[in-house]
Specification:
α1 packs antiparallel against α2 (about 35-70) and α2 packs antiparallel against α3 (about 70-105). Helix content is about 80%, strand content about 0%. The longest helix is centred in the first third of the chain and has 36 residues, at about 35-70. It has a domain at about 5-155: nmb1532 protein domain like (Four Helix Bundle (Hemerythrin (Met), subunit A)). It has eight helices and no strands.
């Protein structure tokens, strides 16, 4: 059956990156378009990761749970779907404000506030998902079906982004879970990514946060 530990790892990454975003935006000096472009590109990347992650759940996971999860699934899946709609609406607000801020570095307070709305909805969703959905998925979803969630994100992501996103996820990831995730990849990927991905994220974090070791979830 499904090993859902990789979902906790992805959630940890998203908690960290989205929690740090509002202050990142606020710290950009008015008119500093060089810096706003860097922060905006980071925000765009992790927003795509979030959208694809939830799209995969909508397409793959919810139908399986509703088919097999009985009353428990019928009670919780509609809430998950409603929360997804709320998160997508918040993402839309962010994506409306982001291009103008990226090119002008003006009115960052409005964008930071939009990211805070998104963060609030996302955190509530992930907590409920971890408490209600993942234990149910372990019981009724097969490992092969669970793997389709990751495959959806992989197949719809920019290939050049994948090593960096993996590095983001590995930063606080359980090494055993990372190894399990990589075990499904081709041999060359399994050999190279544990070396390349963390270095890419360290370099990226230095550019975004000013340090290769940004604050970890629960260690602030």
């Amino acid at each position: 059956m499904a090993d859902v530990r990789d979902m906790f790892m992805v959630h940890t990454m998203m908690r960290r990156e989205f929690e740090l975003l509002p202050q990142l935006v606020r710290d950009v000096a008015s008119g500093d378009t060089k810096r706003s472009a860097v922060v905006a590109a980071h925000a765009e990347r992790i927003s795509r990761v979030l959208h694809l992650h939830h799209e995969g759940e909508d397409i793959v996971l919810w139908p399986l749970l509703l088919e097999r999860g009985g009353a428990q699934a019928s009670a919780i899946v509609p809430t998950m779907e409603e929360q997804h709609h709320g998160i997508e609406a918040a993402l839309h607000d962010v994506e409306t404000l982001l291009p103008v801020w990226k090119s002008t570095a003006q009115n960052g307070a409005n964008l930071a506030a939009a990211f805070e709305v998104l963060l609030d909805r996302l955190l509530k969703h992930m907590v409920l998902e971890e408490e209600e959905i993942l234990p149910l998925a372990e019981k009724v979803v097969t490992a092969a079906e669970w793997a389709q969630l990751g495959e959806h994100s992989l197949s719809n992501s920019s290939k050049k982004d994948l090593p960096l996103v993996l590095g983001m996820t590995m930063y606080e990831g359980d090494p055993e879970v990372v190894e399990e995730v990589l075990s499904r990849a081709p041999l060359m990927v399994r050999l190279i990514m544990p070396l390349v991905a963390p270095r890419l994220y360290a370099s990226h974090a230095k550019r975004i946060y000013g340090t290769a070791t940004p604050p970890r979830v629960g260690r602030r």
